[in-house]
Amino acid sequence: MATSQARSPGSVRSLSVGLSLTIVVLGLSAMGTPSARADRVDDAFLNAVQSKGINFASPQTAILAGHQVCDELDTGRPKSEIATDVSGSSNLDGYRAGYFVGVSIAAYCPRHHVHE
C-alpha cells in the first residue's frame, strides 16, 4: 500500500528490509480469512516452495514472505536486489532465493512478471 508520507529511499529500504526480516524471523501469522481462490494460489505457492527445499516456520510465514516480495517490487526495487536480500537474511543460496522471488511473483503479483 502506498503512504502519503515522504521518506528518503534509504529509510524506505531499511524499513522494507526490517519488515522482511521480521516476517521471516518471527513467523507472523496474522492473516485474514482466505477465499477459495487464495487457498488454491497459496497451496500452489507452498508446494512450489517446498519442492525446492525452501522451508519456513509455518505456511503462513511463507505466504507473508511471498507477499512481502510483491510489496518490495511495488516500491520499485529490482528482483535481483530482493533475491540478494532474501539470500542474505536466510540460509538460501542464490538460486533458491531467486526461485522464491520468482514463485512469489507468479503466485501473488504477476503484474511484475516482466523482465528487468
Automatic annotation (TrEMBL):
Superkingdom in the source lineage: Bacteria
UniProt source species: Mycobacterium spongiae
Residue ranges constituting the DUF732 domain according to the UniProt record: 42-110
Protein name per its UniProtKB record: DUF732 domain-containing protein
InterPro entries tied to this protein: DUF732 (IPR007969)
